[in-house]
Amino acid sequence: MTAYLKLDHIDKVFTRGAATTEVLKDINLTIEKGEYVSIIGHSGCGKSTLLNIIAGLTGATTGGVLLENREVNSPGPDRAVVFQNHSLLPWLTVYENVRLGVDKVFAKTKSRAERDAWVMHNLNLVQMAHARDKRPSEISGGMKQRVGIARALAMEPKVLLLDEPFGALDALTRAHLQDSVMALHQKLGNTILMITHDVDEAVLLSDRIVMMTNGPSARIGEVLEVPLARPRKRLDLATNATYLKCRQRVLEFLYERHRFVEAA
Amino acid sequence: MNMTATKIEVETATPAATIAPVVTLTPKRPPRTEAYARMVRETAVRVIPPLVVIALLTLVWELVCRRAGSALPPPSKVFADTKELIFDPFFDRGGIDKGLFWHLSASLQRVAFGYSLSAIAGIALGVLVGQSVWAMRGLDPLFQVLRTIPPLAWLPLSLAAFRDGQPSAIFVIFITSIWPIIINTAVGIRNIPQDYRNVAAVVQLNPLEFFAKIMIPAAAPYIFTGLRIGIGLSWLAIVAAEMLIGGVGIGFFIWDAWNSSHISEIILALFYVGIIGFVLDRLIAGLGKVVTRGTAQN
Prior knowledge:
The complex is a heterodimer. By secondary structure, chain A is an alpha/beta fold. Chain A is built from 8 helices and 10 strands. In chain A, a hairpin with a 2-residue loop joins strand 1 and strand 2 (19-31). Chain A is globular, with a radius of gyration of 19 Å. In chain B, 82% of the residues lie in helices and 0% in strands. Chain B is mostly helical. The model of chain B is unreliable at 1-24 (pLDDT under 50). The longest helix of chain B has 39 residues, at 207-245. Chain B has 11 helices and no strands. At the A-B interface, helix 2 of A face helix 8 and helix 9 of B.
């Protein structure tokens, strides 16, 4: 078994003047192709920093990220990110926002008409084709996040990085969108790495849950397999023993062994 | 228990939902006459108050300046004196004896030229200063000092450099209007959210694409604020500069009228200068509105 995405001894130290803060310490993780992995931890534990390092938006102090055995250290469409606050460009329409990435990634491999069809295909996947000519300010938060997902999917990333993608949404919209992401994962078989602080979300969506200890010098505390068959149904899982056990395990990790201590 | 309770709610909610669209549909198409009436009303609300104020001010002016020995002419006399200029703005008797249209268009041409140069240079420098910390450290103190120099203080220097009135006037326009454009553009560039930069990085936009697709649209509201201040300043500067350089132009027209004691002509010219300054400002504001229509946050 070869690792598809490999985080190899990643340390991250922030230096401001004479003061240095070690945020991440010795992070090792391998992710297989098609796997859905969540990283969970208290706020401030450096999980977003870790995602930024994988995305190439921040450099690791030591160690590195290997994607298909090749080191990646700058951002690129092979590791498309769905940002927490959607980050759609407000002066572009829904269609143009998705098209921006498609035009860059498939500049040489797809014709103009094919790119157009590909954008619409991806908008259809997230059920947003009807809003193609709307601007981000004219659609709801959940819809914006759908477009954000379509934009990332349309780049055909090797790894899809989700940075607390449902954090800013209300509970009902969040559940709806989680189901959509699950369906997409089922259908397309993407490799997905998701940052979250929601235990239910992590257990529901992931194959494996990576639990991080509190910072500074956050490490991977524990990795939990979620042996639940797919497709998973939210309602059935509510009483599923395995689901409850996994949930219990994560909760124990977060609230007993690594309780959030208000630092400084 | 809970399940049945929610079911009942759903059932009671449905009939209400079917009634609702019927209610909302009716006011959707108001009769056409009503729409026109509303439009007239809205226009009246905007137009009538300023008209009333103008009428009152003109009346006061007329009453104050009507007395014998008054230094300034009343509006009736201004109109009588300048009737020829108002109704025939296109005459051209050679030299500087031209209609007001020619004076205004000469001034506008200078402004158009100088302002276009300052818009291009200002946005370019603003992008440089906004994007590069070192450029900002090096240039910003210089800008802060230079921008406080009054427009007319540049005129003798530019006359010395160019040895001609026309390029000197254009230079004064340029140097007056460039500062707000630089400073506002730089602020706009510096305020581009990190999110947009991240998006550009993930999509791998090259610097040129980043400039055109992210930077300019994201900073457009700031840039247009600068452009709007700039056009106002350049119109302020041109009148003053033309008074000194002479030739055809509204500034020199005013100076000439003063030298020949045609006070009514000065008043007419001021009226035109004000109107055109207002139109220029609205023009840039309108352009900004069109260009930045989608840039509102979220």
